[in-house]
């Protein structure tokens, strides 16, 4: 398996992994699968500022992870949100762990101090993965989304990537 930076040409393969999480689960709060053009634009926007990694196996792309802006206001620029998705047939093979290890390292080098992950509950696998990386619970947004006929909670977890000193670009 190879971990590499995502390219715009990967959008179709990445969307193939992501789409079932939209249509078949509550893991993503999206309710409609984006078009390939919309998804390519999304990736293009992200890779300009944050790492976006894919895991490639003999069968093609089997997982991906990326960082994104946590919030709009300027003082949030030292924080990022993180996400990881692995094709279900490749779960429990360490791919999420490999992707997150590399992603968190790149975000730390980029100057990010804290990363956040929002996890739709229940999702024991994702909570377990994040805890294994040292994420701690920051809080729960109760009944924050409605999908597939039910109200959903989102657990927010956080992980510091470095000591909280004055940022070097201040």
Write the layout of secondary structure elements.
Elements: E1 2-5, H1 11-23, H2 36-47, E2 52-57, E3 60-69, E4 79-86, H3 95-109, E5 114-120, H4 124-132, E6 136-147, E7 150-160
Parallel strand pairs: 4-5
Antiparallel strand pairs: 1-2, 2-3, 3-4, 5-7, 6-7
Q: How many structural domains in the coordinates?
A: 1
Under the CATH scheme, the architecture is: 3-Layer(aba) Sandwich
What distance lies between the first and last C-alpha atoms, to the nearest angstrom?
Answer: 39 Å
Query: If helices are DSSP runs of H or I spanning 4 or more residues, what is the number of helices?
Result: 4
- The unreliable regions are none
The CATH superfamily appears as Gcn5-related N-acetyltransferase (GNAT)
